[in-house]
Amino acid sequence: MTQDFVILCAAGMLVSTYLMVGQKALVVAIRLYGVQSLLLGAVAAALGLVGHRPHLLVTAALTVVLKAALIPWFLLRVIDRAGIRREIQPYVNVPTSLLLCLGLTVVGYRVTLGVAAANTGVPHQIVGVALSMVLIGLFLMVTRRKAITQIIALLTVENAVFLAAVGATVGMPLVVELGISFDVILAVAVVGVLVGRILDRFESMDTSRLSNLRG
Amino acid sequence: MNLLVATLAAPLATAAVGAVPGPRRPKEAVLLGGLAATLALSLATARRYLGGETPVAFGAALRVDGLSALVLVLTAFVGLLSGIYSVGYLERNERSGFVSPKQRTELAALVPAYLAAMLLVCVSNNLGVLWIAVEATTLASVFLVAFPNRDTSLEAAWKFLVLGSVGLAFALFGTVLLFAAGGGMLGESTSALDWTKFMAHARTLHPFTVKLAVVFLVIGYGTKAGLAPMHTWKPDAYREAPSPAGVLMAVGMMNCSLYALLRVHLVSRAALGPEFSGRLLLGLGLLSVLVATPFILVQWNLKRLLAYSSVEHVGIIAIGLGLGGEVAVFGALLHMTYHSFAKPVAFFSAGTLAQLHRSSDLDAIGRGTLGRTPVASGLLLLATLMVTGSPPFGLFWSEMTILRAGFAGPHLAAVAIFLAALVVLFCGFFYQVGRLTLGPDTRPADRPTAPERLDLAMGTTLGAAAIAVLSGFSLPGALLSLVHAAVRVVEGS
């Protein structure tokens, strides 16, 4: 029962990643990231309640507060200030992107077939979903132009790593998780400052304009 | 207070004081005093290790063995050099009339903060703490790259942040997988991620999961080390970062990332045998040396030239570690040591040339610098001799040690390619620096060069050069025993 719920949530995360690939409105992408984080929180909470691992509940609470609320709010504020709504034409068009991502999911599943499911009772699906999300996140980073999209892709990769951490292991030690969460917050703040400076300079968040350095 | 904690607290406190705006001279005194104290505490920690103790803190999350002690001392040394040079650098910028109090505060806070994060990397015994510390170094250095606040520096900072974050996400995924490979046997407390624990349980880790984890970890920390093909952030970041920060990235960060790679390599070797991660390091190292070659030959910017030299050196060290065996590992760690002494001279003298000519582009500087700025150009030539591994300087001996071990081992083809690349790199680097410093003066008369003077920055460069030359002839006994201790950690005897 729990297992089904966990796998359902993980699948939901994968679906939200696909939806990110499939559309261009930045607001929607940020909301999708929020939903994805909420599902991650649900996975952690479910595993924590059933397995009597209170530190997973802390992880779940942190995830929901930081990644489903605080970070999306911050990113929405940034794009509001920048007055930017949509991703411009990506380097690879949407249908092709979706097909390629399907391939990446197959690769992710195939590679993780050999990974031990540890002894948490969670099958290798979780690691498969996590690796697929890592690969799709990377794909988004290299094919999209807006700084914000690249950051959402990076945060998706980070969510995927956390999914692997709570799903495929008994959960990373709490201190380490706290440290990682703190670093993620700092990273988002750094990104905010940097995007601010890029806006002041270039009056655009289009990273394809950042192409003076070659050789 | 615990000596190890004090070693980490000193630069952190210095950074905190540096972040508060205040009168200039006292702040400079705090910065230099704090960095000198950091070096003294690091030396004391290393001395304690050589005396037979194993300094630990916070359970065993922080622990100093031979490898940590070596990297700790080298990093703290470079930190002090970079701090002194940063004061001289600002002094010079002020003479030519552009330095804001904000920039002053930024540099005084970021240099020690970056150093503190790096020191945490090299004493962490816990893979989780290690990851957190490496992430902290990235965040601190992003602002150092963006420091000049030009269009190109924002571009470089953005690339650096995105590539670095991807690398770190990979490293974190690898850490999770390595933890999963333990299958719950490692426990759930913080110490479950301790490196010593992984080593103790290495044989019982799930082999395939370890393999996957090692690939992710090597790509992740390899990105931070600047191993090809993940090195693309390096030339941009080195060009934009001010020279005091550049040297921290080129020496401190490189050593610390290599430290992380070595820890991963050791777990992998204990779990899977030496071939898997050894070949991975050998392959990436060889690729780095090869990739650096063409870019050095066609380079148009002095600092980017240094960046590709750094890609070359990280490659050489990775090759030594990948070959394995006592001699090759000794060569690699000796190379790391000599490189830490030689590279600052190159960065500082190149930085001086760039500041006096207001640009680091080779064409903008113009040829024949030896006539205009004899001291800085002479030092750059000396640094080139050292960095390219010319006899009788230290890097020549360490490269020969690695080559000797390589030709005695099974990877003859790889070592032959390595040797050929070294020769081309030597010629290429000399061609570039020779063209810049020697030959007729081509700088237009309407763009005069600022006169060279013996200021603090130049004094630091001269001091660093003296240390680098002397160390090549006789390495202090204690430092040599640290290198040997580090070799023992790696070779497990």
Describe this structure in words.
The complex is a heterodimer of chains A (215) and B (493). With 215 residues, chain A is mainly alpha-helical. Chain A has one domain. Helix content of chain A is 76%, strand content 0%. Chain A contains 7 helices and no strands. Chain A has helices spanning 2-22, 26-50, 54-82, 94-112, 125-143, 147-168, 174-202. The longest helix of chain A is centred in the first third of the chain and has 29 residues, at 54-82. The radius of gyration of chain A is 17 Å and the shape is globular. Chain A starts with a helix and ends in a 13-residue tail after the last helix. Chain B is mainly alpha-helical. Chain B contains 20 helices and 2 strands. Chain B has helices at 3-19, 24-50, 66-95, 101-123, 127-145, 151-181, 195-200, 207-225, 233-240, 243-272, 275-297, 302-323, 326-357, 362-365, 369-372, 374-387, 394-408, 412-437, 456-473, 477-491, and strands at residues 56-57, 62-63. A two-stranded antiparallel ribbon of chain B has the order 1-2. Chain B is globular and about 70 Å long. The mean pLDDT of chain B is 91. Classes of the chains: A mainly alpha (215), B mainly alpha (493). At the A-B interface, helix 5, helix 6 and helix 7 of A face helix 5, helix 6, helix 8 and helix 9 of B.
